[in-house]
Structures
1.
Amino acid sequence: MITPNLSWILLLPLLGLGIVCLIPADKTALIRRVSNIAVLVPFLLSIWVYAAYDQVAGGFQFVQYIPWVVPFGISYHLGVDGINSLLLLLLGAASFSAVLISASIKERIKEYYVLLLITVIGTYGAFLSLDIFFFYFFHEVAAVPVFLMIAIWGSERREFAAMKLTLYLVAGAAIALIGLIGLYLATGAQTFDLVQIQQQLALHPLPINVQNWVFPLIVLGFGITLTLWPFYTWAPVGYAEAPTAISMLHAGVLKKMGAYAIIRFAIQLMPQAAHAWMPIVAGLAIVNIVYCGLVALTQRDLKYLLSYSSCSHMGYILLGLACFNVIGINGVVYLMFAHGIMAALAFALTGYVEDQTKTRNLDELGGLLKCMPFIGTCFMMAAFASAGVPGFANFVAEILVLLGAWHQYLWLTVFAVFGLVITAIYMLKAIRLGFQGPLNPRFAKLVDAQSMNEKLPFLILLVLLILVGCLPSVILTHIGSSTQAIAQGIR
Amino acid sequence: MFPIINWSLVSLETLVGLTLVFLVVVDIVLPKKVERDWIGIFSFIALVGLSIFWLTQGSLSGTTFNGMFVMDSLAWFFKGLFLITMIFVFAMTQEFFKSLGERRNEFYLLLWLALMGMCLVASSADFLLLFISIEILTISLYVMTAYLKSDKLSIEAGMKYLILGALSSGFFLYGISFLYGATHSTHFDMIQNFVGTHAMEPLTIFALVLIFAAVGFKIAAVPFHMWVPDVYQGAPTPVTALLSVGSKAAGFVMLIRLFLGVFSAWHMQWGMALAILSAVTMTFGNLVAMYQTNIKRLLGYSSISHAGYLLMGAAAGTALGASGINFYLLGYLFTNLAAFLVIIVFSIATNSDEIADYAGLSKRSNLLALTLLLALVSLAGMPPLAGFFGKFTLLMSVIKSGYIWLALIAGVNIVISMYYYMMVAKKIYVDPPHSTSPISVPLSIRLLLTVAILGIVVIGIFQGPFLDAAISAVQGMYLSHL
């Protein structure tokens, strides 16, 4: 049987990037076509990887290993288990939609696609790497392209937003890097290879005093990426001012790298410190859920509302990370996927609405369902998903997290449930103000997404959202063996 | 009795010296009317030839001239850095001084002299030779800094550099004499023996501080950085490039040889002092760089902050730290030279070094904008570019030596520096241009820009071979106790 070669997921879009760089800037149609293919191919490969992954055998599969920097024990080591193959699928779907949606970009097209492709490739690299150095390496590749994309194609306060987002993320990355180097030095195994470090630490856990300074650095550093309260303030302004594709990718996928890193490098490798520190994180997570939710309630700008909502939902991921049981971790992985798809969809739709109406202010919008029924319906679905209505992926994920957290943090969980109510309130408010009620006469002539080409990016995400929501067992069995292994290690 | 000299060890310096003498003699002998523009091209070809010759010298090691001169892996590595720098600087000079006509040719002689000095610094194994070679380097730099006779800023820069440089030379000699008083020698190996067998006492502390002042002046570490902004701004840009890369590297080879070689047994005593200086230097450089409006001044302060990062490797006091310094300098070389190439082409086209005038550069020249962006991102230490792995190695070295606080301060500094580098990146890619006239880039510069970009990217992605080179440079070091 032919097994997928993970390097192609990196190299083929890289080839696409190279071709885009060589095309003259005025041949925009060709640039768009090549870019579409350059993200479609890894998306299809990700589906293949997901399908071909042997969930019974578990562990890391399709592994590729090339020593890279021998003196430091850095290696080009790719491989997937249940968790990152699911995240690859998320990235594939979100990035493909994001590139399709970019058809609305009209200026500096070549630069736009080059930067977008670099961002996507970097994120693929991060999810594929089983080497801590290369995870970090790829995860930082996206920083500068994202800065430029927000600063060039963003909306009104774009320059401020770009700088704030970048500085926060770089600060988080720098803190995490110090933690990761500390981890590397403390293991004494002279390797950045995740698999070897896991084996080493299974035999000789790190001394508790080392864990106690390395762990918080890693969690704080990647927590900033994951909009941990009170370090979330970069996200609302950053997502709101960014061009649609970046809002989709960043809120949907890029920030999930933080959660992924916390699971893989912090909790799994340093369980003792995790037990000491994660309850604090759980407390902050509740602040995330409730506080950011309440702030979202007050927003009149649709994109800000979604951004605060995104920060609020990261609280569930953080809460699930603090559970130390398999249900909680399942919930976290599930929620990373579900929230990623939902956020990408919601931002894509908002972008469409903004392109048409030139405003995101809920007070000016209204009755859009009348003139754009398809977009409006999709948005309602995304909003329901976000509010945790059964039938959508988010419901399953949030229930799992809450179940996982129940025995550990009874009172916190009560507040977390309250967060779902807040979500429902602001999402319903958004629907009522934006899509129902009388139609603003200014918008009477607006057109809905007509052709399949226009609808495709939304449909891909919507179908995934419902499919995964109705058939949770597909994903749960897929990630089961991997999350089980983590849960056993940290109990 | 005349000592036996192993000429193969000094062959590179001999060739540099012969070229220099040849050019000086020709310049004097040739009648005034005869065209001399070939000197630049001849120099460039000679440098490329020397670089190829340098490649064959990798395995040499040993001392000669009674142990005053040493050729080891460290010297070899740094001579490579100096040669690459010089290739760039010669090409920059060719472009930059087009308007100067004849006087340009004397400038090449000074460059050759500076190269001679730098190579000798890398190979000194005796304080007297070290002092002389530093002076050869610095005196030629004084003259080059003040070379634009009609430019007030250039004269002022030359004057400042001269006064502060003379002061630092004075400190250095004073330090050497104290050290001689304590150890009765100027030879590195004798002094190292002394350091290994004696504890630090007030006399030697005093000597070490004075010697570090001289090194700090060369690498532009706080508090010996005062000359940097004005000299960087006022000097002709090729000289600024040479100061920021070549002269700084010369300072660091001294630092490695002295503090990680000769004085390494006292690391316990001076390690913390260097760590504090490193933290102060990087923080000061970055904080002040935020407020700069002139690109050369900005890079000046940024070069101070990079001296701070590099000092981390010295503070660590380990082989890893020294390898980190070597690797970092290699990446820094391509990065900074790329930036200065862009600055030169831009200033020839627009007659300005103001950051405000860089607005919309991407619409005026794609290549220049891209190069400057990559250089800035690499300086900020973002993957996949060369600057990242250098910072990574240095951070690793300080954490390994237990200075976690220093690593955290470096982390804060990376964020601060990201701010001002990205402000410039925003200028060139986001802001609308003041003028839309395209800037043309001459072919020779285009080639060099490509080489520099390749350097930045290749070192950043395929770190292995370069790290190996940086490590083996330290492993084969003369008098190494690491």
2.
Amino acid sequence: MQKRTFPILAIALLVSSAASTKAGRFTATSAANGTVEGVINFTGTPPKMRPIDMAKEPTCAKQHATPVMTEAVTTDEGNTLKDVVVYVSAGDQGGTATEAVTYDQKGCQYIPHVAVLEANQPMDIYNHDQTSHNIHPMSKANPEWNKSQPPGSPPIHVTYAKPEFIPVKCNVHPWMHGYFAVLGTSHHAVSGNDGRFSLKGLPPGKYTLTAWQEKFGTQTQEVTVTSGGTAKANFTFKATPY
Amino acid sequence: MGKLFAIIVTIITIVSTAIFMSHHWMPPDFSQLGVGIDHQLAETMVTSGILFVAAQLVLATFVWRFADNNDQRKIKIFPGGATPMVVGAIILVGAEILALTLVGSKIWASIYVAPADPHSLKIDVQAEQFAYYFRYAGPDGKFGALHPELIDPSTGNFMGLDPANDTAARDDIVTATLAVPVNTPVVLELHAKDVSHAFYVPELRIQQDFVPGLVIPLHFTATRLTKSEIVCTQLCGLGHYNMRAYLEVLSADDFKKWLNDQSGQ
């Protein structure tokens, strides 16, 4: 009986030590069920969002009943900011996702405006328009490329190995603009229309959170996550009109 | 055989001329200078058309008359050989082209040499791969300076204005459609962001290249309320086929309202 128990215990120990390696400095026994929630605010006057005139591309223009606005700074009532990437910048062990992220070109817009993917996570880029696009992510740490994608083309498959915020433009439609946020963590969120975000499934421990906004830069703060608990982390960016 | 050839040449000449003359090739113009340009074009077409028909018919006549001539007579040659004939032809054709140039230079100069009306509405035009952007000075009547390093399409700053430091730039209105008031002289200042492009509105009868590094003025007065396409006619890259914008000619009131709507955005 004792002889049998020993190998089982040994396996259990091995598994738990593997889990603890993955979860960093946190105890292996605790469940990854902590949450960080918050809202992204700004103070000051943000730049005006401007309507985009797509008249030169009728197939895109007719898809929008009201003009699409620029998305560099998308605000909402209560001075909240959309499309802010919040992620664990320290205290975490890197991304593991293998499911492909979808990035769409539709109505001559990038959807979503900011796509988050983990390092080496695959991404499929689609053209759902009846016009050619030429997607050009202007990466610096990763190899740069730009590819033409006529209507009806199969998706372009890409991965990025190094964490980086990559501005994306279309070489055909000057107004098209987006971002790839390549992160070295599996805990990340993008603030929604109401400026809220939620990071789920965090093992208890201390983390450094970073919030990134394409015009206003980054902010960081420390949070402590308890098992099953919800930590609050709000960020406030200083906005300037120009 | 020679007679058959003469008949075919005559038929081709008459049919092609008839087809050409039965169709009006130019879109209706709405430019103040359009009438003059169309007149000049017609003059050129009629002159060269008459010469074309005459030359073909002379050719047919000679073939009819002499092609089947097998009477072994010595072939007569042009007095003095080929040289005086070639020289004569060059002088004749050259004189024709020179005459057309002299006659046509007045209307050409009225577009490309004559300065714009000093009270013209000034519009700054930027061509880039693969779109046009138009800038109006706004209520202060002044254009802000351009700073290419500040160009940022993500915020709609396509031209590189510096509203933070440059008060003249704050009320500048940048649009993707060119609207102009009817019967008002307009002067465009064309500049390119990247490579060579062109501004062509067939109905205005004007066509002008954008050349990177140069600011090229181009003036016109639109005379009819209409909407037409501005197309790029200088191969500028992958999306050239799709590079266009729209020109809208509005009444003075509608233009004011349109401009106001654009600035309110």
